[in-house]
Design goal:
Helix content is 16%, strand content 32%. It has 3 helices and 8 strands; from the N terminus they run αααββββββββ.
């Protein structure tokens, strides 16, 4: 009681509290935070598990793998109508809306127009079309040199979307690909070692 009467106990308690808080707080603020991000291991592979939007039954697992200065994209999509379907990376990693409109528009950080994957002027997220066979399955593998898993144009944390219609590769801003039939968030995957 003697310490409490003189206020010593509460002063010591406060001092200990602030010391504990300081020990848990990184020093250097934004500069150290940026340095820590710079030192993060390079992302070499990613995956998107696509789920159907309301009224559809389209599903897929799509793999992304860094190959030199490009990304290999491969996967198999089931539950499609036969024919071509728009295939794009969208701005937000949010597939929560029934129609996947929560994923926003095509990922286009450079302010370019919509185009084909081979066009010099295109959205980063413009991956063209995938084509389903008569059983509704699209199997694909291609290399894209615009998307990235690291740096300024990283697609990590964004959404991969399959559309009901073909992308005409020119109509603005989406290639007239129509509603979204499947959506999945692109996340970091474990890098496989030989």
């Amino acid at each position: 009681m003697h310490f409490l009467e003189k206020g010593v106990f509460s002063a010591v308690t406060i001092a200990l509290f602030f010391t504990a808080c300081d020990e848990g707080t990184p020093q250097g603020g934004a500069a150290e935070s940026q340095a820590a991000q710079t030192m993060s291991p390079e992302v070499m592979s990613a995956v998107a598990v696509l789920h159907p939007t309301e009224g559809n039954d389209v599903r897929s697992t799509v793999q992304f793998e860094k190959i030199n200065n490009a990304i290999r994209v491969q996967g198999e999509v089931t539950g499609l109508e036969p024919g071509k379907h728009g295939f794009h990376v969208h701005e937000y990693g949010d597939c929560s809306a029934d129609d996947a409109t929560s994923a926003g528009g095509h990922y286009a950080p450079r302010g370019m127009p919509h185009g084909a994957p081979t066009d010099s002027l295109r959205h980063v997220g413009d991956l063209g079309n995938i084509e389903a066979n008569q059983q509704g399955m699209a199997t694909f593998e291609f290399i894209d040199s615009v998307i990235a898993l690291n740096g300024e144009y990283s697609i990590i944390g964004r959404a991969l979307v399959v559309h009901v219609n073909p992308d005409d590769l020119e109509s603005q801003p989406t290639g007239n690909a129509g509603p979204r039939v499947a959506c999945g968030v692109i996340g970091i995957a474990e890098t496989k070692t030989e």
